[in-house]
Each structure stands twice: as C-alpha cells, then as structure tokens.
Amino acid sequence: MSEEKQASQEEFSSRPIDYDEVLVKHVGEFGPFQRRIYVLLGMTWVPTAYMILNVVFIAATPKHHCKLPAPLSDNHTAYFQDLLLPKVQNSKGEYEFDECHMYAIADNFSTVYTMMEFNTTLNESQRELTTCTNGWTYDTSIYTSTIVSQWDLVCDRKVLVTISKSVFMAGLIAGCLMFGSVTDRFGRRPTILALGVVVTVLNIGIGFAESITLYIVLRFLVGASLIGIVNACFVEVIEYCGPNWRVFCGVCLDVFWCIGTFTLVLFAYLVRDYWKLHWILTGSCGLFLLYFCTIPESARWLYVTKREEKGNKLLMKLAKHNNKSLPTDLIVQTKAEQKGTILDLVRTPNMRKKTLIVCFNWFTSSLLYYFLTLNTAQLVGSPYLNFFLSILVEVPAFIICLFLFKRIGRRITQSAALLLGGIALLLIIPLPKGMIRV
Hints:
By secondary structure, the chain is mainly α. It is built from 21 helices and eight strands. It has helices spanning 3-13, 19-27, 32-42, 45-53, 55-58, 70-74, 77-84, 109-118, 147-151, 159-186, 188-207, 212-240, 246-270, 274-287, 289-292, 299-304, 308-321, 349-374, 383-392, 394-408, 410-428; strands at residues 17-18, 64-66, 87-89, 95-97, 101-103, 129-131, 136-138, 332-333. The strands form four sheets. It has a two-stranded parallel ribbon. Strands 2-7 form a two-stranded antiparallel ribbon. A two-stranded antiparallel ribbon has the order 3-4.
C-alpha cells in the first residue's frame, strides 16, 4: 500500500465518519453492489403494480342484462330478449338492453308463448317492470369472467365493487401507519421477508374466496402488507445509494412500476378469466420470495441500531464488490441517533406547514392517478388499449422529471405538473359525454 493511501486510511480511521461520507469517499455511491441491490429491491414494484391495478381487469363490469326464466332462455333466446327486455339509450345514442330490469310478464309463460305464436308485441298494460329475479346474462366477448360476473356485483350490488377498491386503499393507509415503525425496529430485510410471505399467503386465500365479503377483507390485508414491503424496499434502496444518486434512484424506481403495468396488461389481454389471471399474478409474485433471502440488511440501519460489527462487515463486502478498500478499525456514525415519532411531523409550525403541503400533494396526485388509471375500462374502446396508453405516457414523464429536477428543482417541477394536470382535467368538462376520442 502506498504511503499516501496509508496516511489517508489512518486519518479516516482516527475519527468517526458519517455514513454518507463513507459512501461518497471510500465505498462508492452507486457501484456494482448497490446496483445489484437496486435491481433486486426495485423488482418488488412489479408485483406491487399487479396487486394494486389488477382490479382494472379482475373487477371490470361486463355488459349484462336480465337473464330470462329457463324455458325462455333455452329456445328462441334472441326473440324473447327483444320482447321481454326493455331498452335504454346509452351515452352514444345507441339502444341496448336495460341492465337491471325486465318486463314482469316474462314469468307468465302461457302469455309469452301466445304472443310468439301470433307475433304480437307488448301493450302498455304489459310493460310493468321488475328486477332481475333470475340473475343476469354477461357478455363474454371481452372478459370471460370477473368478480362482478362471479358474484353478480351489478345493479343494487355494484357498490360492493367500489367498496372493495376503497377498502384496499384503506389497507395501504393502515400499512403505512403500522409497518413504518416495524421496519425501523426489526430491520428492513426481516420486514420484507415476513410481509412477502404474508402477501403471498393472502393472495392464495383470495384465489379460494367464495364471497365478496371475504375477498374485501383479504384485499385490505394485502394492501396493508404490500405497502409495508414497498416502504421498506424504498428506504433500503435510498440508504444504499450515495446522496448524489438518490434523486435518480428514487425516480427510476418507477421504471419497475411501468414494467409491472406493461406485463399486467399483457397477462390480462392473454388471460380473460379472472380466476386464472389471479393465479398467474399470484405465482409471479411468489417468485420474488426466492431471491428476497439474498438481499442484505441495510448497512445504515445496522449502524443506527448499534450493530457496528455487522455494519462494518457489510461495508467491507460492499467495498470489495466495488473494488474499494476500507480500514479494519472503521468507525461510522449516523445522523439519526435520536429516535423520533410521528408527532414530530407536526410539533413545530415549520414542520406542520411542510407536512400539510406534502400530504396534500400526495393526496391530490394519488387521487388523480388512481381515479384515471382504475377507470380506464370505463372509456370507449378496448380496455386493454386504454390501459396501455394511460401508462405509456408515464415513461416520458419520468425522463422529463429527471431532467427538470436537476435544472429547476423539485418544487417548481411539481407545481407545474399539478397545474398542467388541473388544466387538462378542466378541459375535459365541456367535451360531449359520448365523445369517443379525447
């Protein structure tokens, strides 16, 4: 070892050094070791996209109408449907069967067969409406089956679809509040591994759910556990990256989200049955458990929790993979020695203001993103193409954000993006309701 390098290491080892300084000056900010961890942890965004956005297809509502009584639905079905199902005008000005009503005379078989024999139509006294007492007939041209057709979540039960989506989002909120402290106490790696197993087991349970109630409960638990994994992975990624790479790494994690959304729409297009699609997505999520055990603990967390020996060994390993060297008597200190609580976010006026602004921005951005994305199936045209186009625009958005963050900063970039999004939404309001292309 040269005298200059040896003197540098003696100076380095003679005083405590901040963890970020170790990354910048001695280990490397984003070397081969960090890039490997980045990809492995970033890939968790793929099943995250599956679990959050699969309801676009799994909970889609196919076209439907009342199912006629068995004698009428077995023969001359088209004739009886035209005779006994009322028609309503849709947003495009076209007439289609009423989704929730049929004429009550459908249960009077003798009258109906007499009308067919003499080729007569209903008079005004015979047009009394009733609900779909025999169930519904679903169009299978786009979806072979969904949870809507499985459990008849239409008409007065369609609110359960919205509830299932809202409950999942409530699970995300609960998971954020619950597993943040768990991650800090027990470590990033154990949290990721434990919750990975929990999410897989819960998704297996969803595959066997025989009621919408059980499905909603399990989706809540999946949401809570899933966000625990995502937050733990995000924190560990940032802790392994040097300060000069953190903006880049944080933004580019959404590239893995895009991979998840692109593959989701591909799976959904190829597999139109919700049950089969669910098992494919669950199986692909389970594959990530095979390599989770190879992910090391966060070195920074080890130092914060006074596990210096394990932290030193991990930094030595990191330096070796990055073709760097560290002294054996390394002393690393961290800035996060004092434990905090969630109340610290609102303890002072300055922090309250910043917390409220950040929370409002997250609320607004999430509300608009998920409202638009989760409702792409409601747009005119192919739901698969609509979903694909809605996520395709995210790719250039990431590139533009990276460029603008460095040039004009985050505050101006975010403010401009919110303003542009708000203007675009306002421009939609005056458009005709049945407009096909926007």
